Amino acid sequence: MKKHKKLPLFKAQIPKENLNHALKEAKMDQNFVQNIILKEGYSPIGKSVAIGPLSDVSFLKNKFSCHYNLNKFNEVPRSKQHFVTGFGPTNAPTAGTLSIILRAVFFEKKTGIDSTIIISNLGAFNSRNIALDKIEYLTERFAKFIRSLGFKGELRTHNNFNLLVASSLTSKVLTIKDFLENEEVTTNLYKKLGIQGKDFPTFIDANFTVADILLPAILKKKERILVFVGIEEYYFPKLANLVIQRFNRDYPKQFISENTLVAAAFGHLIEGLNGFPKMSKSIPESSINLDDSPEELEQKILRCDPRDEKIILQMINLVSDWDLKKIMKANKAFKKGGNEWLKFKKDYLQYFLSLKKLWDKTENKKYRFKVDSLFK
User: Fold this and answer.
1) Which of 220, 256, 219 is nearest to 241 (CA)?
2) What is the tally of structural domains in the chain?
3) Cα 88 from chain centroid (whole Å)
4) Cα separation of 131 and 169, whole Å?
5) pLDDT single digits (tens) 201-239
6) 272: DSSP letter
7) pTM, 2 dp
8) How far, in Å, are 39, 227, 237 from residue 30 at the CA level?
9) Which residues span the domain enclosing 70?
10) Does the residue 262 lie in any domain?
11) Domain final position from 243, 267, 291
12) CA angle 246, 251, 252 (to 5 degrees)
């Protein structure tokens, strides 16, 4: 394979009228979020919830829009708790992916609860039309990047024997109907953009994700799994609890503890630039990501389209290591606008550039993809 200088980003090509139609079909605004909350019966963040020792309502509200079973997470001791999150390595980290990673790093550090981050390389290969060599190159870089941010927990990929076993167990009790009734809202949009994988491999990816969530319960007998996930992927924790119900019905006490329960804390939505419903790793023009040049980042953050100013504020709230006091000041500055808001944007640009430097250090110019590396 030829030497990797810099892997090109995928550029979506789609007629404007078709894109507008697709966006309307997959619009992920506040109405979309509220509809999910009402339909699924999810609860707002309130005084009844805590994540380990962290119970500050203002802080939790700042990080999460709502929750599913979070009020039951602290019913078991810390030794029976586990955090799980993950993402597909289809492009350099966008704001959405960074929010997931930074959240995992923060909560592991502050709570001491066992944690897992999954870089879902084979899942992404199945569910997205992206070359495997690019996915594997990014997988290597993500692993180095996450460790450089201070994550100490389990960090794994999908070419993992334990996942093979767990996904075989979960697939035993799932049906095609389960997957058809639970799919991501962006599926139709991604199909129109030509980046969505075929139906069957997409189901394979979904099953991998369910197995990712339940692996700590199967292998380590954890009884509370907390998933950090975006609201558009609400169906994964739901499917995981469906599998738990069927395990308890068909294989009682064989695979998991009968007390096992999956909870989810749903991150706030980070909208996409240029009218896209969310920042997507698969649609570079929708996002601010770490492969953008310093000049591009300055343009996107400091001189963004007026309609995208609110997205920069969302990133400050969700994709930073700023404390709550500083974040609240940034929110007030946003409302006032002018030089005060510009000052916070300049401060945030410097923070984002510091993340970019860490990402750039993971580049491996000697990288060569070999299929047999997947079997190690």
Assistant:
1) 256
2) 2
3) 8
4) 28
5) 999 999 999 999 999 999 999 999 999 998 888 899 999
6) P
7) 0.86
8) 14, 22, 21
9) 20-267
10) yes
11) 267
12) 95
